[in-house]
């Protein structure tokens, strides 16, 4: 505690100020609720995957699957408005490798990884 008080006094004497900051580093690893409820299974897979997610309110949903080079392998052709509840969709990935499933759900954008092995 004495070290903190000394640091704080020096900090203020040098013109420092403390303010509340949104998005502090401690919260950087915290996942958003929709990201938490999104599950890709099985992982690893032999090619067939099921994506499940839960929406609390109706939202536009888009899913794209890209390889490690960034090439789109699978893309939802349009953005669909989906109602609240649990949703699932199935996809088949033909070649072994690491793939990234990119989601846009409402205003949230996030990516999950899936491994296809033979």
Report on this structure:
There is one protein chain. This protein is mainly β. Helices cover 14% and strands 45% of the residues. The protein has two helices and eight strands. The strands form two sheets. Strands 3, 4, 5, 7 and 8 form a five-stranded antiparallel β-sheet that branches. The longest helix is centred in the N-terminal third of the chain and has 12 residues, at 2-13. The protein starts with a helix and ends with a strand.
Task: Name the overall outline.
Answer: elongated
Helix-and-strand structural type: mainly beta
Strand content: 35-45%
Q: Taking Cα atoms only, what radius of gyration do you get, to the nearest Å?
A: 21 Å
| Mean pLDDT score | 80
Percentage of residues assigned to helices: 10-25%
Number of strands: 8
* Uncertain runs: 20-27
Written as H for each helix and E for each strand, in order along the chain, the element string is: HHEEEEEEEE
The profile of the biggest β sheet is:
5 strands, antiparallel
Distance between the amino and carboxyl termini: 57 Å
Tally the helices: 2
Q: Secondary-structure blueprint of this entry?
A:
Elements: H1 2-13, H2 33-37, E1 39-41, E2 48-55, E3 59-67, E4 72-75, E5 80-82, E6 85-92, E7 97-105, E8 108-116
Antiparallel strand pairs: 1-2, 2-6, 3-4, 3-5, 3-7, 7-8
